[in-house]
Amino acid sequence: MTLPGQFWKWRQTGGFVTLAGRFRAAVERHGPPDALVATSLLDLAGFLGLTRDLTAGVPAALYLHENQITYPEVGRTRVEDRHGLISWTSLVAADAVAFNSRYHRDAVFGALEGFLGAFPDERHTHLVPGVASKSTVLPVGVDLVRLDRTRAQRSDPPLVLWNHRWDADKDPGAFFDALDALAAEGVGFRVALCGERFARQQETYRARIEALGDRVVVDRELSDTEYPAVLASADVAVSTALQEFFGISVVEAIAAGAFPVLPDRLVYPERIPEDLSDRCLYGSPAGLVDRLRDALAADDRRDVARRLARGVEHFDWSVVAPAYDDWIGSITGS
Question: Quick check: 245 and 137 in contact, CB under 8 A?
Answer without folding.
Answer: no
